[in-house]
Structure formats: structure tokens, C-alpha cells
Amino acid sequence: MKAEILRLLREADDYVSGQFLCEHFGVSRTAVWKAMEQLKKSGYAIEGIRNKGYRLVEADTGTPDANRYGKAEIESRMTTKYLGRQVVFFAETDSTNQKAKLFGEERRENGTLVVAEHQTLGKGRRGRKWESPEGENIYMSLLLYPQIQTSSAPQLTLVMAMAVAKGIREVYGTDVGIKWPNDVVLSGKKICGILTEMSLEAEFISYVVIGVGLNVAQQEFPQEIRDKATSLLLETKKSVSRSELIAEVIRHFEDLYERFLIKENLSDLREEYNALLLNRGKEVRISTPKEEYTATGLGINDTGELLVRLEDGSERAIYAGEVSVRGLYGYV
């Protein structure tokens, strides 16, 4: 109820009457009053006037979250049909991916979104640790039950990368791109990592979890990644609501995901992905366990592999796996 109250107050041009809220939720005035008091304790400035109703006052605190980052706030921002409508929020947890996988085993609702303020065991690709400072960034994982072939599931990582890039452009109005396959990049540095994991039963997908770590307001980074990591605040000097950004990312993902499910590949999204791809038309250095060589990035194919042109003019499709792709003179 609190999330829906916030949505109604935020969308209203004027006061929302208590009577309307009672009828809308089918509850007493006392129940509405208690919900308003709980929201006030969570940091919302809500003005209540007799015979007029309630109004949400968006205070200028300099920090858009202003102690309001949580389940109700995130859910109140959602405009999706089903993804992200059920949010599970943790002040602290080991890993949002770990929690989402547990929820997958419990068969929680499709599209359940797990969000944490702080992670103690966040991880990136290849088991690397993902730094998760409190109160600055977005750590979230989306639980899905896609009816697709197991070979198609890794492509969802690229779909989420597109959604993150589109969401950032929507909220910040700044250009961001993708370093193949799924690093979201701004000003030549990484701002977002994505980790997709799935569980199988026999040869079928039981569930898929897509984890996102997005550097929003972080201003200090460990020495070992300082030259290739940054945050939205550092690059844009703009503070925004993390809840709003989450809602925009999930909104874009739902659209892209539904289009992906039609053909179970990236054929209908390929052009949009390539428009965001920073490696396209650029010389890249490709490293595998067996060899290292230079090529020119051409874009992805329908299954998300990176197409490159070698120095002899031949073309090759690169599968993410254990392959590392870097720019010749930097991270991108």
C-alpha cells in the first residue's frame, strides 16, 4: 500500500483526499493515517491538511535519495507491466545474486527484483570481487523464468547492458556506451558490471538471475581499478534518485526482454546494440588462453558474438567466455 500511496501522491497535481485513498485501497482512515506516518518516518515530507488531504513535498536536500531508498520508493517508481513490481530490499546482504538464486529455488514471483544498500560478498565475472560501498551505488538482481534454450540465456547479459545504457541516457541525458559484451562505459571508464547466472533442471532452465552493479555516486575507487572505473556522479556532476534510475533501467529491460523472447536471440535488437557498441569500427586487442591478436570490431551477430576483421581481411566471431577484448590504447 505504501508504494501505491507514493505513486498516487507523486502523480497528483494537488492534494489527494483521505476519502479517495480509503476507497481506493478499501481501508479505514486510520489505516491511511498509519501508512502516512510510516512514510514520514522513512524520510518523506508529506503534508496533510484537514478537508484537503495529503501532498508529497519533494524537499531539496541535495541528495535525491534522502533516506528514502527502499522497497516502497523503488516500487512506487515502477511503470512496468510485471518486472520489478515485487521488490525485496536489504540494508545489507552477502550478494543480491545469491539472494535472488535462493528466491528462484523458492519459485518466487517472476520479475522479482532484489536490491541491497550494501553487499559484503558482491562478485563480478570470473569470480572477481565487486566493491560494494554503502549508500552510493545500485546493487540489484532480477529473477526470471524464461522459456528459452540454455544456449540463449547468456545473451540476456547483453540485453541488460542495453537496458542500463538506455536507462542512464533517459535519466542523465548523457551518452554512455557498451564495451563488448556487457560493460557499460562512460568517458572511457567502466561504470557498470553485469553478471548473469542460471540454474538448470535436466536440460531446461529453472531460472535466470541477472545481477547489476552500477556506480552511481561513488567518488573513491581502489588503486587497482582507479584508471578504468568511474561513477555517474564523477563524470556528470549530477545527483539523481537511485530509485528513479532503477525504474528506468527495468522499464527498458522489460521492453527489450519481451522482444528478445520472440526469437530467443538478438536479431531484432542487434542494430540497437551495435549503435551503443564502443568497439564497433575500433581496433581491439583480443586475448585468449592460446593466442593474442589485433583486429577491428564490426559489431555483434544474432547470438551476441563479436564480429571482428583480422589484419588479413578475414572475419571471425568471438564468443565471450574466457576471451578478453581491450582497446589498443586503453580500457575501451
From TrEMBL:
Record PROSITE patterns:
BPL_LPL_CATALYTIC (PS51733)
Could you tell me the EC number(s) of this protein? Answer: 6.3.4.15
Checking SUPFAM superfamilies in the record gives: C-terminal domain of transcriptional repressors, Class II aaRS and biotin synthetases, Winged helix' DNA-binding domain
Q: Does the keyword ATP-binding apply?
A: yes
Enzyme class label: ligase
Establish whether keyword ATP-binding is in the entry. yes
| Reaction catalysed by this enzyme | biotin + L-lysyl-[protein] + ATP = N(6)-biotinyl-L-lysyl-[protein] + AMP + diphosphate + H(+)
| UniProt xrefs under Gene3D superfamilies | 2.30.30.100, Bira Bifunctional Protein, Domain 2, Winged helix-like DNA-binding domain superfamily/Winged helix DNA-binding domain
Q: InterPro entries, alphabetically? A: aa-tRNA-synth_II/BPL/LPL (IPR045864), Bifunct_BirA (IPR030855), Biotin_CoA_COase_ligase (IPR004408), BPL_C (IPR003142), BPL_LPL_catalytic (IPR004143), HTH_11 (IPR013196), Transcriptional_repressor_C (IPR008988), WH-like_DNA-bd_sf (IPR036388)
Give the source's domain of life in one word.
Bacteria
Q: What does this protein do?
A: Acts both as a biotin--[acetyl-CoA-carboxylase] ligase and a repressor.
**Annotated NCBIfam families:** birA_ligase
Name of this chain's protein? Bifunctional ligase/repressor BirA
